[in-house]
Amino acid sequence: MSDCCATETIDIQVEPRVPGKIRTVALVGPPNSGKSTLFNRLTGLRQKVANYPGVTVEQHFGKLSGIGRSDLTLIDLPGIYSLDTYSEDARVAVNVLHGDMPGTPAPDAVLLVLDSLHLRRQLTLAAPVLSLGLPTLVLLNMSDLMETRGGEVDTLALARELGVPVAKISATRGTGLDAISHFLDRKSETYQPSPQSKLELPVVGNARSYRQWATGISTRTKYKAPFSSEWTRKLDRVLLHRILGPLLFLAVVISVFQVVFSIGQPLSNVFGDLLNSAGDKIGSFLGHGWFESLLIDGIWKGVASVLVFLPQILLLFLFIGVLEDSGYLARAALIADRVMRSIGLNGKAFIPLLSAYACAVPAIMATRTIENKRDRFATILVAPFMTCSARLPIYLLMIAAFVPNKPVIGDFFGLRAAVMLSLYLMGFLAALGTARLLKSSILKAASAPFILELPQYRLPTLRSLGLRVVDRGKVFLKQAGTIILCVTVVLWILSHVPFHATLPESLIGRIGQWIEPVIHPLGFNWKIGIGLLSSIIAREVIVGTLGTLYGADPATQSLSLQAALRHDLTLGGAMALVVFFAFAMQCTSTLAIVRRETNSWKWPALQFAYMSVLAYTAALAVNQIITHLF
Amino acid sequence: MSALSELGIGKMAIVERLDLPEEVGHHLMHMGFVPDARVVVIRRAPAGDPTVYAIDGFEIALRKETAQSIRVRIVQERL
């Protein structure tokens, strides 16, 4: 907590509007006021922090353990400009504040976070929030930056004007936070009735009177706005340049893929070797027998074949984190608006689509910032086409096994990265085409206005990036430790029943051969078929399945998974498989979230059917073309 | 009075009124586009549209069709 900066807290006794003990505290503030960073500080919990207006669309809970009050619950609300319910996320915030949100306790106190660099405008939110009548502490965030840039504000006078305590803090540096403990300690005690301070609030809901009120207060509290940082304008001159802007955007995307390969691949290889030798060591301790076979050939090989992709997935998340936290993503939306407009969506839909490169689930939740319902549904329906990180394992595996690493553009950009990039492009184009189709048919609507705030550029903090990567790593490991583990055990059992049967004669072999005629035209064998079936749960499961199946087959047991696949599949079949994965909807979590967000089974069902048909047709075409060409 | 969309880069103007549907108008007003607010045209997106405006120390991008409905009074030319 605070160790370098003195905190000024001014506590003016206000009459308690809500008697009794404080249990739940709501964190309220405009977009980009640093609310999420503060939430992380106060709770020690991980949560998405992004320098993009309105990215916190979910409500997040956490215990206030960061300031030693784990008896209190903190709710992080979406960033809002007012208590008008313009978009879905603003509606969430207002409902929680009014205690109308099912499953969420009504807050007993409010922490109102305002960006002190733009206090004059941010104060307009104070009027509706104060009129809620809850005990409130106003936190002037980024006060360190404001002061170094020559800004000033009389917090004592501000507290007097607002009738509530005011404190200067810095969420990034963690200074001034003891003011929050003081506030909560005092409010938790029994209230002493005191003369109510005179507080004149403007007419509720009128933007103009809010503004006049805020301007009046900032003048009376001698608010001096800091010099604006020239950095943002200077950077935008290059990053939003007519020609350089789009080129730099492409360069950023390409280099992310190249780094995922050139740094991530060797890391994954080392990690994979470690896992395999560990498996062999354990196996040699156990001796031969069914238990060793289940543990090593079944579970270990299955789980390890997915785990090896951890370094590459974390690298990808690190990059997306840097893009989001720095504020570049909002610029990407601005650059993309023209393209998005041609398919009937606006640039705002581009942000969820970009984050769908990591995972479609948070991306679909992020669509709540899109104000128009039809636009929002179209974005939800096309988001799973974006190449999420769960597709990486099968892409990386098939590319490493079948594509030679020849240079394409000098040594920097290789054939493997090129194939990878084209898979990403394929998903993106499928998303655009489908969106256009939807917007010109079942989701036809007049275009909604595009209103986007461009935040100042910020240097992403190591803390926030670290939390993001660790969080993602945990999700991935949990998946590997639960779903993939279960699937591999079931597969091992099915492949060893009846006892002493060879793999093709086992139960799994029979199921596989039964579906083989359907997938044979795509160049897939029955093992791939089992992989497709098991990966309906989640895409990355296929790699674990193949690891287990090839591990159970005596013919390929001693080979690496890559060598076993080369031995068993044609180039056409291999490429058809990655194309199938580019388009198919194999993710139960995504289907569940689409159901939740659209409030109907109709949309996920339509999505699943459409994507499956597209995947089958595309894979068929790829296999036929490659087989006839080579 | 002219439309905000007609202003060139670097021009400054005072917002007069918003001829927009109530919901959109309110949202823009809460973002700073209230009568008497000063607005400066900062830059256009690489494709020429949307345009970035500075208002109340914030930068907000609007499409041409939205800016067309914001009536402004031009006050001065910037260098």
- Total helical elements of chain A: 27
Supply the number of helical segments of chain B. 2
Q: Largest contact between protein chains? A: A-B, 40 and 32 residues
Please state how the strands of the largest beta sheet of chain A are arranged side by side. Answer: 1-7-6-5-2-4-3
> Mean of residue pLDDT of chain A?
83
Beta-strand proportion of chain B = 35-45%
Task: Give me the CATH superfamily of chain B.
Answer: Ferrous iron transport protein A (FeoA)
| Poorly predicted regions of chain B | none
End-to-end Cα distance of chain A, whole Å, is 65 Å
Notes on the protein architecture:
The complex is a heterodimer of chains A (630) and B (79). Chain A is of the alpha/beta class and 630 residues long. Chain A has a domain at 9-220: Rossmann fold, CATH 3.40.50.300. Helices cover 57% and strands 7% of the residues of chain A. Chain A contains 27 helices and ten strands. Chain A has a seven-stranded mixed sheet, sandwiched between helices. Chain A has a two-stranded antiparallel ribbon with strand order 8-9. In chain A, β8 and β9 (413-414) form a beta hairpin. In chain A, α12 packs antiparallel against α23 and α18 (392-402) packs antiparallel against α25. Chain A is elongated and about 85 Å long. The termini of chain A are far apart. Chain B is an alpha+beta fold and 79 residues long. Chain B has one domain (2-76): Ferrous iron transport protein A (FeoA) (SH3 type barrels), CATH 2.30.30. Helix content of chain B is 16%, strand content 42%. Chain B has two helices and six strands; from the N terminus they run ββαβββαβ. In chain B, strands 1-6-2-3-4-5 form a six-stranded antiparallel sheet. In chain B, a hairpin with a 2-residue loop joins β4 (51-55) and β5 (58-62). β10 of chain A pairs antiparallel with β5 of chain B.
